[in-house]
From TrEMBL:
Coiled coil: none annotated. It comes from Bacteroides fragilis. Residues 9-205 form the AAA-ATPase-like domain. This is AAA family ATPase. PANTHER family: AAA-ATPASE-LIKE DOMAIN-CONTAINING PROTEIN, CONSERVED PROTEIN, WITH A WEAK D-GALACTARATE DEHYDRATASE/ALTRONATE HYDROLASE DOMAIN. Transmembrane segments: none annotated.
Amino acid sequence: MDNLLRKLPIGIQTFEKLRRGDYLYVDKTDFVWKIASTSTPYFLSRPRRFGKSLLLSTFEAYFEGKRELFEGLAIAGLETEWKQYPVLHLDLNAEKYDSTRALTEILSRQLTQWELKYGKGVDEETLAGRFSGVIRRASEQAGCGVVVLVDEYDKPLLQALGDNALLDDYRKTLKAFYGVLKSSDRYLRFVFLTGVTKFAQVSVFSDLNHLQDISLWPDYAALCGITLDELLRNFRPELEILAASNDLSYDETVGRMKRLYDGYHFFQNSLGVFNPFSVLNALKAKVFDNFWFQTGTPTFLVELLKRSDYDLRTLIDGIEAPASSFMEYRVDANNPIPLIYQSGYLTIKDYDREFGNYLLEFPNDEVRYGFINFLIPYYTSMANDDQGFYIGKFVQELRSGDYDSFLTRLQAFFADFPYELSDKTERHYQVVFYLVFKLMGQFTDAEVRSARGRADAVVKTPKYIYVFEFKLNGTADQALRQIDDKGYLIPYQSDGRELVKIGVEFSAEERNIGRWLVG
């Protein structure tokens, strides 16, 4: 069956290379034709490795009239003219932006390449002036409008986050450079910009009055990514090989793919899409892993969360917010959610039409447990390499009914906190409890409630249902009584499994679990 494995386009960002190399392609050309049929400037925000670069390369091939590359695709039955246009494709994705000169040198280098083809005016000295001149001459020489494609327009800004002086310098440079797209409108046929984040302060969005941000448009919710129908229709042989390699049925394999990689929504109640990078890598490697998460750790996002004093439990449980609070990132605002959403760590899961609020949650298990695992070393002494051991032992002890060993291990875990973490607030320790129980949810049914500031938890194993109540600066007796007084066991009394209620006292002074009682 391995011989059935076809060429998967992992890392292929050039449409021509993909088509001439006979790689598998999920046909998105109907979207390309629909968008390209207008002259409106567009902007699309999607997470990294979601196919934005390949999308722009597809537009480039289309506007260059490379009809042969589109044979057999949807657009072949839609387009009749295949007219050629001059295309200016600016790719800011693969560069490193770490100094004031870096951005200007990169833009100048690209302009020089275009000027070799279209010429340069003697009075064009600034980056904006040179860009404007290239667009005008390209249009005049071709006798038609110019197509401008900008891949990852925000990459310099994202790399400068945390360095306010550099960020301000980049913002001014890009403000002038992208502003050319407005003043050169009469020479333009089509403009499409992609990026991860929509920076509110960059003038491209204020100056280009007709720039259409289609990031939340329902018609284009599946423009990037892979839908379930596309997965099943295009990758059946690869899914069968993946199933056989993991001793799973075909349906079990699809179910696991959905739990791990599906769940992205880019509009209220829209069709869900899979992360294409993780899907292709899972099919290629024939294993399930956190492929997307491992390619880019959210270090800056975690630091941003800590600086803003954002309660992680709120983030992990889900956030209700209007679109205005997560679609644009303002550097001067103390709100990390836009960056976290636009980076792909949160997605739309529901929408309240009455109040206009979106529910943002982790899209799937890859992101959920990848993010929580990544957070643990920031809040505890546990290194990434130790997490599997600790969490595995926690789960095994509860499965076997050995709750004393579970709590003793948890006690030792807190006792092992390094000195620099010993002065943390009560909320810090509540968050740690919360993260530990959330990580256990990978292997067993574990629920932890952050409401009302408590650290209660319910863990279900094949034989037992545990109800925990942790009392900060209270007694184990009080915690146990609260379980009874609040009726926490009532929902599980008809379950059939053994119910175990555990009251635990937690000393804020000692920063650790004290006594516990079991009822």
